Amino acid sequence: IMQPASNPLDIAMLDGYGKNVIDVLRTLQYFPNNKERFPMVLGRDFSGEVVGVGHGVKHFQVGDEVWGATLAGRQGSHAEYIAVPASIISKKPKTKDHLQCAALPYAGLTAWASIRTVGNLSRYTTRSKRCLVLGASGGVGTFAVQLLKAWNGIVTATCSTGAAELVSKLGADNVIDYMAPDYEAQLLQGPRYDFILDCVGAHQGMSPTKLLHRGRLSTYVTVVSPVLRNTDDLGLVSGTALSAFQALQLTAKELLDGRSARWAFFCTNADALKDMAELVDLGKITPVVSSPFAFAEIPEAYRKMKEGHARGKIVISTVGQQGPMGKLQMA
């Protein structure tokens, strides 16, 4: 955007922003080709300083340091200046710099939607619940482990051997190598789980839902749905219809077995961002930065993302960049 624009809220990208790990280009063929969408700016997470506000903005002012994630289907955060609604941001954590904060919003809000909104867990109801996080070393998984532990859950996490130390340091009570020969046997040790968050999606052998307690309070939530694949293959309308049918089919099947199975997606949530910032400042949640890249290295950052197996989030820094609006002033 042009720097003078201030409708509804401009945010200077000070130190960094996290790179969205979802390939948004997969659905571009169904977007109307208009000037608002093209050229498409990628990226979702951001952390920066407010440089201008619209007339209707009451809770933020110039100079506030804020964080958030841009709306799906809108222009992204891979820019030195962006405009976003004031309703989707909050003050950033005071104890972390912008680069660290930029690693959390998108993954954190996705995990929050999975655990709090869809999973119906909270700081009051998670205590002593047996929780399983499948694929715990990525952006969503590392946040989920820490959030469940902050809410006093008993957390088992799965990851590769190389990520086991990291996941253990994040607070997981039990870490299981998904490549181990006795992987399923380890998952079956002890009582069944009250809550499962699946950040992987593809499983061979035993269905993860079979690891749940039988009963309406045990819930399986996955952040890997077939929505993108279905819309790619069938188009927006037919793909969405098929996805809705599959969601109902999955829910009905598991309800018959006394379990709940649901999909979860990223949702903007300013109140959740406030709670997340408080947990970060209390030391309950630590950003996990896989690799920081300079702005000019964005193509390399995407190549690293495509390889998979990242530990936490890949973050891009704007420090020292010279853009069309002049050198960015650092906090």
Automatic annotation (TrEMBL):
Family annotation (InterPro entries): ADH-like_N, ER, GroES-like_sf, NAD(P)-bd_dom_sf, Quin_OxRdtase/zeta-crystal_CS, RTN4IP1, YIM1/Zinc_Alcohol_DH_Fams
Highest taxon of source: Eukaryota
Keywords from the UniProt entry: Mitochondrion, Oxidoreductase, Transit peptide
SUPFAM superfamilies: GroES-like, NAD(P)-binding Rossmann-fold domains
A GO molecular function held by the record: zinc ion binding
GO cellular component terms attached to this protein's record: mitochondrion
Cellular location(s): Mitochondrion
Enoyl reductase (ER) domain ranges (all copies): 23-316
Pfam families the UniProt entry points to: ADH_N, ADH_zinc_N_2
Keyword presence, Signal: no
The family this protein is said to belong to: Belongs to the zinc-containing alcohol dehydrogenase family. Quinone oxidoreductase subfamily.
Protein name: Enoyl reductase (ER) domain-containing protein
The species this protein was found in: Amblyomma maculatum
Taxonomic classification: Eukaryota, Metazoa, Ecdysozoa, Arthropoda, Chelicerata
